Amino acid sequence: MDNHEVTIRSVDFSTGVISPSYRVLRRTLREIAPIFWDQEAAKSILQAEGDRLIYEVHVTEIPESIEHLPFCTTIIYPGCVGEEYHMTKGHFHSQRQRAEIYLGLSGKGALLIQNEEGEVRMIEMEKGTIGYVPPGWAHRTVNTGEEPFIFFAVYPGDAGHDYKTIEEQGFARRLFKDQHGPRLVESPNWRK
Amino acid sequence: MDNHEVTIRSVDFSTGVISPSYRVLRRTLREIAPIFWDQEAAKSILQAEGDRLIYEVHVTEIPESIEHLPFCTTIIYPGCVGEEYHMTKGHFHSQRQRAEIYLGLSGKGALLIQNEEGEVRMIEMEKGTIGYVPPGWAHRTVNTGEEPFIFFAVYPGDAGHDYKTIEEQGFARRLFKDQHGPRLVESPNWRK
Fold first, then answer.
1. Residue A4: inside a domain
2. pLDDT digits (tens, 9 = 90+) for A51-70
3. Global model pTM greater than 0.80
4. Is A56 within 8 Å of A73 (Cβ atoms)?
């Protein structure tokens, strides 16, 4: 990005759409099915629905380098795979000691953060909640409501994304829907 | 901040108040009068009103170090000093090559950015506008509306604040209110 070129953007708080649009990454169940606990439920959904959009991320062309602050919006669509809420893949920053900020815009959800020892914290989010991911913690977001859960995120340009560690190890806790609402339970297959 | 201690905060989009509260910095006309063009008008206001709150910044205890992302909200109250709109002092980052993000929450305003050569760009802001300050540009915000202009800001923890350069040189352009709305004009006393 040329420093002399200033793109003015806006974000619609109710839809999460960034204008002007640059790129939208879409994660469907077919692609991210392995992150869910109930693999039989995932298969049934794929058979019945073909595929399902779990979430999308609206990104910009801000460079990922130390002097910049890339930002994005994420829209997680409501629903469950088995009893487990729709959620993002989750990641550490490659440069572990980098924070991230999430600002809730619409809907209801949870930010799960996990450190390298597998300690997990849950931050419930709605419009106006500031979910701060401290340096060193992996982060995953979950839609625990009935509407799209939408948030705005900012991260340091040199953070980098390490998806692999979470792909391999998972999160130590999973967020299930029970009759009383979200229930955070130990993941039987963590680090397996 | 202990990484194991996660403070959950929220921001009220209509008032800019961050809860739980940590610290609110208040800038009054008495303190920042020299930034305005019309010094006679500033004096008259101080005589008539005693003092006047121009803006306030709600900050948190997030450390200013490279691994963190400090954030704040700013509320600029509506009004003019002479014909010039209420505005912030403005600053460069001490570490020049660091960006900043402003997200409009309420009201109407402008983000003025200026590079070291004195080139000025104006980004009009309202709810949802993302004002991106590219690395290397000083930034000042202005309330051009009739209501408080409120925005959320995030900056890299190692950016630092250089207020002195702008205190000494000012901005090369000033935003005045005329009968048709905001008018950006060359500042007669820039770098003097």
1. no
2. 999 999 999 999 999 999 99
3. yes
4. no
Q: Which chain B residues have a beta carbon less than 8 Å from that of A129?
A: 8-10
Task: Confirm whether A2 is domain-assigned.
Answer: no
First to last CA, chain B: 42
Using DSSP bridges, classify how beta strands A9-11 and A109-114 pair: parallel, antiparallel or unpaired. Answer: unpaired
Among residues 156-175 of chain B, which lie with CB inside 8 Å of chain A? 156-157
In this structure, is residue A5 part of a structural domain? no
Q: Could you give the CA distance from residue A13 to residue A35 in angstroms, rounded to a whole number?
A: 28
Q: Which helix (H) or strand (E) holds A11?
A: strand A9-11
Q: Give the one of B98, B130, B154 whose C-beta lies nearest to A67's C-beta.
A: B98
CATH of the domain at B101: 2.60.120.10
Those of residues 19-48 in B touching chain A at CB distance below 8 A are none
Instruction: Residue A72: list chain B partners with CB under 8 A.
Output: none
Q: Side-chain half-sphere of A29: how many Cα atoms within 13 Å? A: 27
Residues from chain B that touch A134, judged by Cβ atoms under 8 A, are 1, 3, 6
Range of the domain at B42: 10-186
Q: What is the ipTM of this complex?
A: 0.95
Determine, yes or no, domain membership for B77.
yes
User: In angstroms, what CA-CA distances link B179 with B39, B63, B129, B182, B183?
Assistant: 22, 44, 25, 8, 9
Structural domain count of chain A: 1
Render pLDDT for A78-108 as a digit per residue (tens, 0 to 9): 999 999 999 999 999 999 999 999 999 999 9
